[in-house]
Description:
Largest sheet: 3 strands, parallel
Helix content: 40-55%
Number of domains: 1
Order of helices and strands: EHEHEHHEHHEHHHH
Strand order of the largest sheet: 2-1-3
Number of helices: 10
Organism: Vibrio cholerae
Protein name: Alkylated repair protein alkB
Amino acid sequence: MAGHRTVRIAIGDNLLKKPCATELMRLNKSFIVKRSAKGPREMMKALGTLSAYIKHSLETGHSIWIAQKEGRAKDGNDQTDPAILKMFHVEGRRQKMEFADYVRSLNLVPVSISYENDPCDIAKARELYEKATQGSYEKGEFEDIESIIQGIVGDKGRVHVAFGDVITQPFETPEALAQEIDRQIHQNYVLFPINRLAAGQDDKDITPEVRAVLQAKLAQLPEPAHRYLLDAYANPVRNHI
């Protein structure tokens, strides 16, 4: 679009259980994050390969899209995992570069994607509720892939994508850098009326239709699970303050 090349996208190997999904990921310029790696030696090898690939991609003019944590934020509370930033620096350590200098060379840009409606919100709330009440949640074999498909084809309402500022400050630790990424993501997130309604705020754009949409969602869940769905829409408001 507009003359821009698409990016290379990091995906977990948990999404490669169906051959058709694997082929789709390849067509979309995806590369694999080995979440299933076992043992310290295997994990370090996988992290080193991933870190080196990311750096090579950037040096050869290919932008990278990678989530700031493993898995989705099912409660709407997006928080960057410093472990992701430590992974970036594995290649930096090999090059004997300090963390601050190396991550600055990556030209990190936080991106916020705001959906008016999450097509997977009911399923996410059910999962969180089951974990809280049963202690665990048993995923179906292809559940992650089905969630991605639902997220692509499901009704999202209005969608807003905001690109933050290139991070050029010399953050000395992954934790400090994670805080800056979170600050930009939260501040650039666009809040829709359903977010403010779930957070208990008054807003002139909260119409009867918006109230009806939220009520219809809650009606699909047992009452004790309501707070998980409400939090998913309310947490972006709380993080924005």
